[in-house]
Amino acid sequence: MSGKEGEVVCVTGGSGYIGSWLVRLLLDRGYTVRATVEDLKDEKATKHLEALEGAELRLRLFQMDLLDYDSIVAAVNGASGIFHLASPVIVHQVHGPEKELLAPAIKGTKNVLRAAKELGVRRVVVTSSVSAITPCHNWPADVVKDENCWTDVDYCIKKGLWYPVSKTLAEKAAWEFAQEKGLDVVVVNPGTVMGPILPPVLNASMLMILSLLQGCTEVYEDAFMGSVHVKDVALAHILVYENTSASGRHLCVEAISHYGDFAAKVAELYPEYNVPRLPKDTQPGLLRTKNASKKLMDLGLQFIPMDQIIKDSVESLKSKGFIS
Ligand SMILES: NC(=O)c1ccc[n+]([C@@H]2O[C@H](COP(=O)([O-])OP(=O)(O)OC[C@H]3O[C@@H](n4cnc5c(N)ncnc54)[C@H](OP(=O)(O)O)[C@@H]3O)[C@@H](O)[C@H]2O)c1
């Protein structure tokens, strides 16, 4: 345990796939954690958190709705830092984008930051996404994409890609608030997050690898920029929180790669499944690189490689009974 005993932090979306890992690592480091769930009576959101080591003494759960400011204040009150992960992750079949995605993502982020400012929170780590980085079209073809690249929101609206719209506008709202009100905000932009599952339910990114193992041929042309281990994403949040020198956006991928690279590796490691052969260059024009997340590497993060991400994901899907 490191010397964080007594420091109180709040994790919004603590019940989720990434949130659960973050709560676990924070408890391991000695933090006292206030984690939010949408429904305290939902055991699928609470039981795996209550079972974590250290939870009995140092974890408290709060029912929070991103559109209910008072519920946010109750969860945040007394915390010196916030990790803001809560946001709906709906990639397909969005029927009412404003209500389902945009309002909770954008207004929710503003509500969390407003509460942080009013309650004197020291630093807020906002979980954005590579979906706020790509798809972008005004980027030089010969330059590797980095934190300066922003998603083309008009293109996404035209194509009905509401999830990237929600993440991009939420992140922009966070930066605007930070600048106007003088709040210390840092952002993590994870790629497609995979690895061991703590909650009993599947999230959208683990559903993606499950579908691939089941033979799905969908190519995530606009959504995929690289994979990243869920544990590394949780660690990245802690690193940017603890390092006062960390600032701005932090792309969080083990490498920039194509979805075709990922599918080919899954097929190689697990030939017993029906993984489709996809074209290698599934994201035409996307330049590959190993050092995409240099800012996080400079903070000490050594990314778990793609082979291990895939192995940990498939073994977890098997042990949880999602695939045999
Ligand atoms: N998974 C990825 O590949 C990936 C990649 C980049 C960025 N991200 C971002 O990382 C964050 C967590 O994603 P995840 O994959 O862990 O998703 P997840 O498992 O679906 O978790 C989402 C969390 O947000 C909470 N939430 C959703 N809508 C809410 C609302 N209206 N009010 C209060 N809480 C709400 C959920 O609470 P309940 O569980 O209680 O319903 C849950 O804790 C999100 O911001 C997502 O955009 C994810």
From TrEMBL:
User: Pfam families, from UniProt?
Assistant: Epimerase (PF01370)
GO MF terms here are:
oxidoreductase activity, acting on the CH-OH group of donors, NAD or NADP as acceptor
Name it: NAD-dependent epimerase/dehydratase domain-containing protein
* SUPFAM superfamilies reported for this sequence: NAD(P)-binding Rossmann-fold domains
The membrane-spanning stretches of this chain are none
Q: Which UniProt keywords apply?
A: NADP, Oxidoreductase
Which residue range or ranges hold the NAD-dependent epimerase/dehydratase domain? Answer: 9-248
